[in-house]
Write a structure and sequence with these properties.
Strand content: 15-25%
Structural class: alpha+beta
Shape: globular
Helix content: 10-25%
CATH topology: Alpha-Beta Plaits
Distance between the termini: 5 Å
Order of helices and strands: EHEEHE
CATH architecture: 2-Layer Sandwich
Largest sheet: 2 strands, antiparallel
Length: 64
């Protein structure tokens, strides 16, 4: 699995961080998503997929 994000479209809702805190974080100054692990371990795959699904701005892409 590989994850990509479109930072410039992030609205800073933070849903990704709540769902997958080992994969995503937010910048302190503006809340924009920070990708902590572009190729997370298998045990984080379900959380990463859920984070992509709940992202209100649809900025997270999960590639198989």
């Amino acid at each position: 699995m590989r994850i990509t994000i479109e930072e410039d479209k992030c609205c800073g809702a933070g849903q990704c961080v709540l769902v997958a805190p080992k994969v995503f974080d937010q910048r302190d100054e503006d809340g924009v998503v920070v990708l902590l692990d572009a190729e997370p371990p298998t045990e984080q795959h379900a959380a990463a997929r859920e984070a992509a699904a709940v992202c209100p701005a649809a900025v997270i892409e999960v590639h198989a």
